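[step 3/7] fold_predict: job queued, chain A
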Amino acid sequence: MAITTQQIKELREATGAGMLDCRDALQKSDGDFDKAVDILREKGLAKAAKRSDREASEGVIELYSHGDGRVGVILEVNCETDFVSRSEAFREFAHEVALQIAAMSPLVVSEEDIPEAALEREREIAANQAKEEGKPENIVPRIVEGRIEKYKDEVVLLRQGYIREESKTIQDMLNEVIVALGENIVIRRFQRWELGESVSE
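[step 4/7] structure written:
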């Protein structure tokens, strides 16, 4: 099937991938746009993994205030070079992540950041709920693990569905921006405040 320049251009605009990569993905998918996007995302994941060990010490501190100052977020996103840190795509990504944090109140950036005590507490609550609901003893462990995965989806920023496009996670967005900008990018840390919330742990 002949791939048109217009198809390549549209795929490039949608994914941020290079022209040759877009043409290759369209050829492999016989011109199917959605399949081509999937091919590029898979390729992007490989590229993102290759870049993950490169040092990211430049970046931006994004400040975001929402609801007439009722919610505030401070976010640090790092990249490898000052050039990328000043780019519109990088700044836009940082802003979108701050918006996500304001809206969805994650507790940690990645799964590794969840304290083991918090996971234990969630396992205990889930097990007790399952028993109270009269679930058979032999399926309780599966129910507990399912609820733990759901808990992680709620509290881990990288696992959350993006508020503007639920089918995409923040990890997917991060992978896309890594591929588009060609650098290792790291969501380092964040803090979220809400007016009137308790400051005690």
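[step 5/7] annotate
Residues 33-51 form the longest helix (19 residues).
The first strand starts at residue 58 and ends at 66.
exit 0
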